[in-house]
Protein: Clathrin/coatomer adaptor adaptin-like N-terminal domain-containing protein
Organism: Attheya septentrionalis
Amino acid sequence: MVGEEPRLARKLLEPLAGIVRSTQAKSLLYEAVYTITLSLPYCRKADGTMPASVPDIVDLCTRTLKSFVEESDQNLKYLGLVGFASLMQSHPKMLASSENKAARPLILACLSDDDITIRTRAL
């Protein structure tokens, strides 16, 4: 829907970030983060700049996805990797930032996971 109505993407960022900050429900956390990552490419203002809140929201999503990948539950780990792949589409340099460097070795460690789907997704 945000592809058809780009203003909606900017309006959704803060409410979705609020859900990510306040809920413990893994399913809701994932859906909120995933919707944010799908909305990010459409958040540019008319002048081509991103809203000031975007870097903090990207960091919030990165921390949340990192916590998913750290889980022992393979399903959550897989969802975390899917979320990182989606986030990398709009913010490919986010793993290079100093705050998010801890996520890179975590993803690389998934390459040696026993589960083939985790290894494949980590690629």
